[in-house]
Amino acid sequence: MSGVLLRHRGPAGPDPGRPRFVLYGPLRLLVDGAPVQLGPPKQQALLAALLLRLDLTTGPDQLIDALWGAQPPAYAKNLVQKYVSGLRGVLAAAAPDPSGDGPRLLFEGGGYRLDTDKDLIDLYAYERLAATGTALASNGSPEEAAQHLDSARILVTGPLAEGLDAPVLERERVYRDERFLADMELRAELELDLGRHRNAIPYLYFMLHKHPLSERLSWLLMLALFRADRGAEALAVYDEYRRRVVAELGTDPGRALRTLHHRILAQDPELTSLRAVPAPRTPLPPGE
């Protein structure tokens, strides 16, 4: 993967002495950097569900649906109470904080709420960094945007709550995977617009391997290869993508990819300056 895409590590994280939750990859609670035992898998899934609904109260029936879906066990409410009790013990042992600033699992308004700081959860740190990067890209600050998206990217160490089985987690993984793909497409677009197409190529190959039907990634990789004087490889990427979508979907590539293919065949010189990220919109003067 590109050295440029890996080089930025962003600002320092929160105080390492405070308990931190990691949702990307295996679910973890870290205290002084060391993982804490979280109990059985369904208890961990309950913790993940509460982390996804931070600041919100979740009733027992909602938690049962989140953990088991349409076919819960007959004693599901007892299990939820058991797991809540277990999690409270885990949190109390992991962060005995007389000031009350440690994470707490509260019962209020007929439901459960996990009380902790969003800055101590990697998922919300990702959202903040990615949203800021997207806004900077829209405002014409590509270098800063790329740095924020890089800082977001390195937080994603695997699927959300990897290895845990619960309907709520399966749904959330689909959303998070699509969100990450969109953010990383923007990251590659910025790399091209910054003139670092050679650095973007290995990253795009990596992403396309993970998302072989992504037409946008194929488009970006073809453009990067053309700009790096590797036009034959760009055409090969198109041919491979076309074979794949014909075989798997029974259709041809979309218009944007076909147009880029024709322009590469024609050695269109304007491709060297084609913007991947749309130019920032200039506000109209008042009254227009």
Automatic annotation (TrEMBL):
InterPro entries per the UniProt record, alphabetical: AfsR-DnrI-RedD_regulator (IPR051677), BTAD (IPR005158), OmpR/PhoB-type_DNA-bd (IPR001867), Sig_transdc_resp-reg_C-effctor (IPR016032), TPR-like_helical_dom_sf (IPR011990), WH-like_DNA-bd_sf (IPR036388)
DNA-binding feature ranges: 2-116
Gene Ontology BP terms: phosphorelay signal transduction system; regulation of DNA-templated transcription
Membrane-traversing stretches: none
UniProt GO molecular function: DNA binding
Record-annotated OmpR/PhoB-type domain positions: 2-116
Keyword terms of this UniProt record: DNA-binding, Transcription, Transcription regulation, Two-component regulatory system
Family named by the database record: Belongs to the AfsR/DnrI/RedD regulatory family.
Protein name listed in UniProt: AfsR/SARP family transcriptional regulator
Species in which this protein is naturally found: Streptomyces xanthii
